[in-house]
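Hello forum,

I keep getting stuck at the same step: I have a sequence, I want structure tokens, and every attempt I make locally crashes halfway through. Rather than fight my setup again tonight, could one of you with a working pipeline run this one for me? It's a single chain of 152 residues.
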Amino acid sequence: MLEAVEKFEKVFVRLGESEPRYMGYFLEVDLKGNKKNIGPPCLEDWENARTLLKFLKIFYMVTLRFSGSLHATSNSFFNELIYMHTNLLQLCKSRDNLLSGMAMNMMLKFEKYWGCEANKKNLLYVANVLDPRLKLKYVKFYFGELYDYDKA
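Reply #2:
Ran it on my machine without issues. Output:
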């Protein structure tokens, strides 16, 4: 939805300038019944939406590829895991504070769920080992990238 609405940023700005009823959609009623105009999205809101779009696109693509129901996805799980991890690492180094903050929080959750200490999901790696294109070398290589030597 963010990707679709981003294309119409200029339209929303023009709509705010030319249509008085448009502003009525941004009235917020508090507990006392007072109406407060919070206004349409400003430039900062659009920038934050673009930032959020970059962040969420990673998870959207991984979810689409990994959770297919009409084809086997167990052999692609490790690739998607690595894809997500490398993108999160890049986003953690971003100069954008909002983006890097979200990425760091998500990296903590990623490590909690997929990290070496918590990872008891060894059966998922078997599909990669059995894949004739990848075998055990692929898993060993990326474990070396993800974790320190002893854990890998």
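Helices lie at 2-6, 9-18, 20-23, 43-66, 77-92, 97-114, 122-130, 135-146. If your local run keeps crashing, start a new thread with the error log.
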